[in-house]
Each structure stands twice: as C-alpha cells, then as structure tokens.
Amino acid sequence: MATAAAISFSPSPQIRRLSASIAAPLRSISSLHFDSLRSNSSSLRNPNFRVSASSMRVGTPEKISTASFLDRRESGFLHFVKYHGLGNDFILVDNRDSAEPRVTPEQAVKLCDRNFGIGADGVIFAMPGVNGTDYTMRIFNSDGSEPEMCGNGVRCFARFIAELENLHGKQSFTVHTGAGLIIPEIQEDGKVKVDMGEPILKASDVPTKLPANKDQAVVKSDLNVDGVIWNVTCVSMGNPHCVTFGNKESQNLTVDELNLAAVGPKFEHHEMFPARTNTEFVEVFSHEHLKMRVWERGAGATLACGTGACAVVVAAVLEGRAGRSCTVDLPGGPLDIEWKEEDNHVYMTGPAEVVFYGSVAV
C-alpha cells in the first residue's frame, strides 16, 4: 500500500524525546513533503505501508493550507490529521459527509501499526450528528475493536472540529458517542474541558459479574487475578473500568514498578468482565494528587486514558482516598478531573495537539 504524507511538525516535548541526532533537524524543519510510492503487484499482496523519503522537499508552513489539504478528495486516498492527547495518539478523519466510517476496522488496524502504518492508538471519525447533536464521534481501536468512548480522543476530536470549521476562541458543541451525549468545550488557552456525564456504578451496567457490595456498586472488592487478590472498584464512564489502588500483598502501589504488560491483559480478559475492561493502577500522593498507569481494552498500555482518569477519581472518592477535584498524573502528562456534587457529572480538562497532516492510499 502506498503512502503519501504532508507532515507539519510542532516542536513539542514528544518530538524532543527523539534521539538528539534526529530531534535537532526536525525542530529546524517547518514542513516535509513525502512523495507517494507507487504500489506494485507484490506490495498490493502485502498490505503493509511503505513510505519513500527519497524525494524530500522542505517548504514553509505558508505553503501548506490546512483547509485545502483537508478538502482534498482524490479517489483512493484518505486524508487525515494526527493528534495526541498527552501521548495518547489518534488518526482523525473528516467523515462529515457520511454516516459510515471511511475505513474498515481491518484497515484501521493497518493504519495504527507503528512499524508498517501511520502509528496510533486508534482512528477517530468526525461524522454527522444524530438526535439533535452537532456531530457524531466513532473510534476504532488499534486492534480493530470499537469502544464506546475515549476521553483523550474526544479532546482531539474537539480540536479537529474547530480546525475543520475554522472556529476560534472559546467554543463548545454536542457530540453523540457510543457512551451517549458528550459536550467538549475548547478553552481560551487551547485546552479542552469535557463534560463526561455521570459515572455508572451499578455492577450489571459497568458491566462486571463481581457482586455489588455498596448499594448496587462494586467498591474495594476482592478480585483474584492468577492467585493475587486485588482490591478493585468498578466504574463505567460509558466504557468499563476496573480501578485498583493495591492488592493484599501491596496495599499502596508504586505504579512505576508494575509489570503492566504482564498483568494488564489478565485484567482485561478476566471472566468477571464480560465486555472486557480498561484497568487503572493508581498511586496516591495526596488528597488532590493521584498517579495512574493504564492498560486499555483493545489498545494495551497507553500514555494516557481520559475516561480512565475520570474513573480513577470516582473510585478514589468512593474509597475515601481523595477529594472530588484532583490532578491525575499519567505517563503522558497530567489531567485535571472534577466529580461535581451539584450535578454528579465528571469534568475532564487537558490538552490536545496536532502532530502532523498526511494522506494514505486505502
């Protein structure tokens, strides 16, 4: 499969994490254009992405018009914008002209491949609104599954819509998702505040097969994972979360010491979670400061999970470990989370940034 990309880099911390030999020239290049590499019969049989940088041209940002780039409609090419929210990265696709995603789940898996594709945790589609909403957001995970919602993804979605519609300043709109109505608001500083709605605590609605032990909720309940008894609280933010602050052997986690790749899948596919689950491992610094690592259902270990951070604060409040307004540190950076008593809604505030613009043959 051939790939053509027009890439505009911002000198963000993510780019500076590259090795010095690579990062220095990237910071000095305004934009890069990669010519498409024509597919031959063998590459068509092997649907991996091949990028040719043999004819690289350096230009200025003025030569790339965002509007004209996104308006392109060449047959056989998918135009996209890559965004990240604290390192949780997504391929954003303008799908406003159709209620059907422009790529299949199988194609999404290939696009998300970090070696042979663009590389991302998921593909997000900006689609026409339904039931009176302004827009619809759908997402395919890197494994092709479709989650109900994604907190970091909806912030990227909001910034993408603002770019598509040429919106400036403080803006808000309504978004239909698999988790229901979500209302993101772009702040003056560029961060996005999202009304994530009310947390779902009823065990059967999370869903979990663990028996409720506090009203209809599962709070600080025992979960046997390969012989280790973990204390877990189950929360849905439109998608299922299992939150743990420790186990019988270690009541207070040091999350950086976790072997996440080993334990995460065991939670995700545990028989107590019929729809699988996202899992958050949490360290408490203070009543207003938490740190988490996440194993996401369908994506594995990611640098950030917005719905997970929301679930963590809800769980921390239910277990008496934290207040209703917290800063949650994720591997990609902090999110501000508030679970308001007045309306029972959870509000998430954090950044969303453009990584690059590109086109890919599909």
From TrEMBL:
What keywords were assigned to this record?
Answer: Amino-acid biosynthesis, Isomerase, Lysine biosynthesis
What Pfam families would the database entry show?
A: DAP_epimerase (PF01678)
Q: In which pathway does it act?
A: Amino-acid biosynthesis; L-lysine biosynthesis via DAP pathway; DL-2,6-diaminopimelate from LL-2,6-diaminopimelate: step 1/1
Q: Which InterPro entries match?
A: DAP_epimerase_AS, DAP_epimerase_DapF
The portions of this protein that span the membrane are: none
Q: Report whether Amino-acid biosynthesis shows up as a keyword of the record.
A: yes
Q: Which residues form a coiled coil?
A: none
Enzyme nomenclature, EC number: 5.1.1.7
Signal peptide as annotated in the record: none
- Catalyzes what? (2S,6S)-2,6-diaminopimelate = meso-2,6-diaminopimelate
> What top-tier enzyme class does this entry carry?
isomerase
Which family does the entry's similarity section mention?
Belongs to the diaminopimelate epimerase family.
* Record-given protein name: diaminopimelate epimerase
Annotated source species? Hibiscus sabdariffa (roselle)
